[in-house]
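Suppose a colleague, Dr. K., hands you the sequence of a protein chain of 527 amino acids and asks what its three-dimensional shape might be. Before reaching for any lab equipment, you can write down a predicted structure in token form. Begin with the sequence itself:
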Amino acid sequence: MHISGLRVGIMAAASVLALATSMPHAQAQEIDAAQLQLLLQRQQELLEAQQQEMIRLRAQVDALAARQAEAEAAARRAQEQATVNPLTREDFEDAVKQAEQANQKAAEAQQKAAQAQQKADEAAEKVATSESNVEFEWAPSPTIRSKDGNFEVHVRGRVFADAAWLEDDNSNVNSGQGNQGVASELRAARLGIEGKAWKEVKYKFEVDFADNEVDLKDATIGYKWATVGQFKTQNSLEEQTSARFTTFLERAAFTDAFNLDRRIGFGGKVGGKNWAVDSGIFSQNAGEEAINETFAVATRGHYALDLGGEQTNVVHLGAHSRFRFCDSENSDGISATRCANESVQYRQRPFFHTSRVRHIDTGTITGVQSDVLAGGEFAWVGGPFSVQAEGAYTNVQRTRDELNSGDLWGGYVDVSYFVTGESRNYSKGSGKFGRVKVKNALFEPGGFGAIQLAGRFDYVSLTDSDAGIEGGEQYSAIAGVNWYMNDHVRFVLDYAHTKVMNGPEAVNDADGNSSINGVGLRAQVDF
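The predicted structure, expressed as tokens, is then:
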């Protein structure tokens, strides 16, 4: 075996040996940049030591081979001497003795050389065996996994950079609380890890640094059908689909107005290839602190009907519900929007998140025992075409008989079309949309990326006069175009016209009405 060949094997394996010896399974998720630098330094030191050992063993083999050659040459010379010059008995015995000693030394040298070669082969085999245990993948972000499939860690993240121009027709509030002009924000700046341990245990941890704050998003541990930690309640196709893969800059208005969010809880899921039922019980959000926490229960089910054909042709049907208990005392630290202290609040911005104003707002509704949300989902994907729609209803249940229950509702319908022939990536098993697969990515031969055209009508009502709830109504008409440079980078351009009716006079005109127009742009990358 050549030393150069061994160096290649040892260099590939040394990193794995160092990784395996320096990092227990339970700590594999906590590698940061400094630890990785230290790990690489230790790998380099081990590689150099192994190289020196191989050089020493090779030198020993060469020396023993030289000694064996010298012994064989001495034996040949003695034999030639005996042939040319007649030997006395004493000379003959001496020559025989010298030949035996030479042969013995040659045999010893050969044995030592074989032992040295065996050690070198064992070292190389050990390195080769270690190399097969771990593999690295660097695109689109670092992933480390064991080849046996038992362990994996993947670095994940996203950046959404948004800018929007808004025009509010209520000039009387523009100088105070209205919307006017250009605004920008980092809508998302997330970093985290996800992976699995011992094959069956899955984990995910992600933090958002947008708005110059630290906001814990998902922090979960999953085993087969069960999940524990902080994650979204099981509601709405639009909410369950990651914002990386939704069609427009913002989700439907009712998802925020009815406070669909993440909470700490326990969830369980059963399902098949084209259906699933997912339920959970939840307490508060990780960012809240309360002595007496509220709780919520949520359930979502879906069925996917595959219509067949050469292109994607599938129909999604789903339903979901959520019950929140609000009749808790001493729940200081929990926002009214979370439903606590016998109170709840519902509110919503116009379409763009850069708006400083929530033009529809119920204010704090008191005397609330609980609220119940129920919704229906529909989607159809037929090749490049897609239709998606949802409706959701919230019933506000009061603690006293003289207070009427309130009924609030919202919904949307949208259509989209890929000019370049792609299709929205729908998962029949999970009942939500995933990453679009771009056919001809930019910077590839003949590639331009993917173009998607879309339109949506969105409505939400936070008014029930019979129950004394006067939050207002709002609809938005939205048109957008999305350019996908590749599977992980896209630009989103949306125009929205939002009409507010019977909202709070403080942020609308004297009749509670407003008209807001805007254009928004997002540059997005995720990994």
